[in-house]
Structure formats: structure tokens, C-alpha cells
Amino acid sequence: MLTLLSMFYYICLRRRSRSGTRGEALTSRRAVESGQRAVLPVSVEVEQYAKEVLDFSSHYGSENSMSYTMWNLAGVPNVYPSSGDFTQTAVFRAYGTWWEQCASAPPPFRRTPKGFHSQDYIELGFEEPVYPTGVDVLETYYPGAIVQILACSHNPFSQNPPTDVRWEVLWSGEPTKVLTPQARQFSPTIKHINFPTNLLRLEVNSSLLDYYTELDAVILRGVKERPMLALYKMPVIDISDLSDSEEELSDVGGPFRPGGVHQRTGNGYFDKLPYELIQLILSHLTLPDLSRLAQSCKLLHQHCCDPLQYTQLSLQPYWGRLSDASLGHLQSRCTLLQRLNLSWTGNRGALTLTGFSSFMKACGLSLVCLELSCCHFLNEACLEVVSQTCPGLQELNLSSCDRLNPQAFTHISKLTRLRRLVLYRTKIEQTAILSILTFCIELRHLNLGSCVRIEDYDVVASMLATRCRSLCSLDLWRCRNLTDRGLAELVSGCRMLEELDLGWCPTLQSSTGCFQHLARSLPRLRKLFLTANRTVCDSDIEELAAGCPSLQHLDILGTRLVSAASLKKLLQSCPKLLLLDVSFCSQIDMRVFQELSGSFPNVAIKKSFTQ
Questions:
Q1: Which domain of life is it from (predicted)?
Q2: CB atoms near residue 18 (< 10 Å)
Q3: Which of 18, 349, 510, 593 has the fewest CB within 10 Å, making it most exposed?
């Protein structure tokens, strides 16, 4: 019994100190056993703001300006400690859950771990690598979105190619809803790590927030010398804390290994259960759990490797650990794969063209949905492989793949069965999008938000009206050159539209009658964003009230010509309305806002403030 306890103690100690070297672990053990306290080196804490924004998944702002962009997180605070809606802050593209209710939103992937909450991220580089002692995030409006803070072992400013890149979670938590939208400094207690870092990643989830969260600056505090106290600290050991979370995918798809000397020939009652019932039970496991269970016995190995368990596969939660080897291990199990999520994966050399191509050639035949958001390993050859190996692909998401060269997008036109295509924040040009629209006539959902390289959106709108008459949703957020002529062609040809985002499209003018024509042409409209169009007027709102009874989401932020009377008429005529954004509408003061909110409590009426 004493021997078993000694072994248990040694295993716990080894797990707790495995981040250090072998010599450090042995020294730590001797120090604990002898009851001695180590002498710590004196090190001065360094405090630094972000030097550069390296990567991010989305932002509210434009690619050609600084207002509401992620680039505002670099440097010292611009706003803090003030509270409110300021253009000098970093703002993500979405908040709340309204966007999940839209027809364009894809269904969630099965087997997503309950602990994975992240919806957006931003990566920040700092001048000096340090051993972190604290991270401060200055939130200036609707705080509470941050759910995870991570540190990376790679120096982003190093001239050497990244090798053995390692991410470590400094802090994680669940989405929260702070009672007040006021500014705050978020300073969570972080985990100590055994490598210096000057690369942090913040992951956010804004689903519980009532409006856009705004971030002003991030402070990294740390010491340049490695603190030794972490090696000697012996926290209370919980038996449930003995799993190597960072190695969850290391054995994915590996060969079955019988365990130990005491092998049992029978599987108990499992042998009597129907095959389908065992499959149903296993379908509730996450991917790492399924991989571990596959190593327990031959029967469960057979079940865990059944391709029917892998018709849907989301690898996004494991973005920091996924590699070519991981895809290779999974390859034999994914021959019936239909939906694949590789978003956020493969960056800094983790995935290569070779590994990606091999997996797609083996598993792409049945694929109908492919999520590749923020996959910076992608190049033209990768998209060519997708076009060749996925003949039945219906959904493709390349959101924020902003390092793909414009020529790469021409291969998408070969995917003639596409129904949903997301190209938000990509470098697609006019020739490529016209080619796609020529051949992909089954498109139902198209996102061209912040695609600044398209020269003439009127031509694109005309092509959509001619070739894609079944279009259900269209996102033209921040397109700079769509005119009333293009919009008129679009709504006349695509009368099935339910969602239309024309936010921050400055060339559209209400005086041309384009918005009234839109309202009369799209009776099925459920979502309309006319954000920051100062020309929207009462006539437009009244036409929407008369012609769009199914309207659920309307954003008219920034207009100066809409009165309370027309909004009240809209609210009465559109009983399904859930969201109405009247922020910075000069005729809607706080008194009118409160009156409308009280009269229509089922509608989330939004009005931001600046303090």
C-alpha cells in the first residue's frame, strides 16, 4: 500500500513539474521533501503595451481606416478610463445572438466541447519576451466578452521560421454579462508558464452582451528572468486533474494498444448491446475522449474508428495543437466526412500544403461543408485541391483569409454546387467574383463584406440579379461603390432575398428612391442593415413598414432624418421585429428611446452612448 501511495505521489509531482527540465523537477522534489524554501532571484517586473496587432478574426471597421478596427489595440490607451462608443477602440464584427438566428448562419457542429466558447480572436505582439505575471485588458464599452487569454512560445518578430510553436492558456472563463456597460480594467489571475512570451492571444465571446464590446489597450506584465517559485509550489492535487490536456490529440487515430498485463477476453455487457446503440452513446463524446476510448479495448476501438462517427468534424477547438500528423491520424476514419471545420488552424507552419492535400484527397469526396476561416496556411494550390477533390461542396467559408492572393479565388468557380460562400475580408477581385457568379448559379448565401478590391459593385449586383435569382442573403458591408442603379438591379432580380447588409455603403442615397424601391421589391426581407447611411429618412421607414412585415433586424445607426413617429409605425407594422439599432440617430434622444423601449418591450432597441 505504501508503495502504491509513493508511486501516486511521484506521478503527481512529475505531472506538476513536467513543464521544467528534468534537473529542475528533481530539485523541486528534493526541496519539497526536505521542507526547504528556495532562494528566489530578484527580477524587476516589466510593463508593456502591445507593439503590433498580428492577426484577428473580424472587426467592425474598414480595411482602409482606423475607426473601430483591431489595429487600435496597439499602443497606449486612446480612450480609457472614459466609457462609451468611441471610434478609436477595437470592435469585433458581431455581438449577441441575433446573427445566429439569421438564415445565413450555418448549423453548429456536433461534438464541440462544452468548454470551447470562443467566437473571435486577436493576436498581439509585444516588444520584449517576458515570463508573464499579469495581463490587463482595458475595456471601455460593454465589457465581459473575453473568455480566454493565451501565450505563445514563438517570437513573432524573430527572423527565424517558427519551430515547435507552443500555446499555453494563461486564463480561461465562461462568457459573462457585466451589469453595466462602463469601462473597466480586466486583470484576471493568470497561470505561470515556463517560457518567455511576447505574443498574446485574446479570444472573445460576445453572445451575452447587449451591444458591441470595445477594447482600448492590452498590458503585458512580466519578468525577464524565469521565476522559480512556480516549480516549488505544490497545490492540492485532485485525481481529476491528472490528464494531459495539451496532449489530447497526440494519439488521435493511433493504433490500438492493449493495456497492461491483465488483459480481459470479455467486454461484459457491451457485447450484448446493439452496434447502433453503442454508436449512439459514443456520438456524445468529444474528439479527444473518443480518441482515448479507442485505446481501451478492441471492441471500443472498432466503434471509435467507425467512419460514421466522423460525418461531422470540428477541429477549430484544437487549433493550437493541430498538425499534419493529426490530420494523417484522422484520415482513415473520415472517409464519410460531410462537414469539416478547420477554422483558425494551421497557422505558423502547423499545417502544410502536403498534409492538407493528402487529407482532402482522402476525405473530400463526400464533403458538403468546409469552414476555413482565418486559415493562413492556405495558398492557391490548397484551393485548387479543394476544387478538385470536393465536387459536391455546397458551403465554403474563407472569412479573413486575407493572405490568399487574388488569383487563388478563381478556383472557386469550379465548385458549381456552392450554396453558401463567405469571402469576408479577403483579397478577391472583380474578375474572380464574376467568374464565380457565372458558374455557381445555385448560390443562396454570399458574403462580400469588406472585400475592398472589387472595383465595381454595380457590375457584381447586375450579375447576381441575372445568375443567382434564388439568393437568400447578401452581405455587402463596407462596399464603397454600390450605387442606386446597382441596388435597383439587385432587388429586381433577387426577389427571394431575406437578408441584405448595406452597412457603411456611402454611395447609396435615399434621395434616389433606392431604399423605397428595395422595400417594395423584397417582401420576404427579414434583416436589413443600412448602418451609417445618414440619408435614410421617414419615407424609407414607412415603406419598410408597409412592404416588409417579416422584418426582424433593422440597423439605421447614424441617420439624422428619421423621427419617432415613423419608428413607432414600423414597430407596430412589423410584429416579428427583434432588433432595432437607432444609435446616433439625432432625432431619437434618450427620452424617445425610453418611450419606444417601454412601449415595445419585445424588441431590443439599441442606442449607444459616449461619456
A1: Eukaryota
A2: 12
A3: 18
